[in-house]
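Lab meeting tomorrow. Look over both lines:
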Amino acid sequence: MRDGPGRKEPRKVEVIANEMEPAEVVAGVGRAELGWHFLCDIRADDSSQEAIKAEYKRLGYRKVSTEWLFTHDLLEIPAFESEPPARLITEMPAVVPPRTTYREFPQIRSDARLYCSWTDHEVFGSVYSVPFGKDSWVSDLFVYQQFRRSGYGRALMSRLLQDDRDLGIAHSALLSSAAGKNLYPVMGYEKRATLQMFCPLKR
């Protein structure tokens, strides 16, 4: 995959490999002459993580990160609230607190919905719902360090999922880091796959 034209700082090429043998993937990358790239290995069963990592290392790659793919069918959505509440931001940047920079809320897509918990003086956290047909993608869930473990992440996700369902969305999906993967099962998400990211040892 490559970024489309017009991006000021385009990312590198990313190769997506779903349930494929590492040697087969690397051989395909070589034939395509992709140059510097990242490689995302996706597995439904994460019991072979270490073996996959070792095999890519043997083939000249180093591991960069691990993420987990979760999906939600929106049939049962836990209700969580916070103070201040999670709210949909409908204007940008007029309703963002004065001491908050616009950079903290980048526009992902024009049809994305941004939820935030804030007061006149502080921002506690935010998250996006990005629609793709009848499904949606959760992007950039973030709660500031000093406010974590206080329910803001759960409240933001609860509001987002309820609105997704009200808007006719069928499924919600997201990628989670190690820091966030314990939150999503609480919200009703199911883990579907593990993604390991690799890049060549040498440019």
The radius of gyration is 19 Å. Helices lie at 22-32, 49-58, 152-166, 183-186.
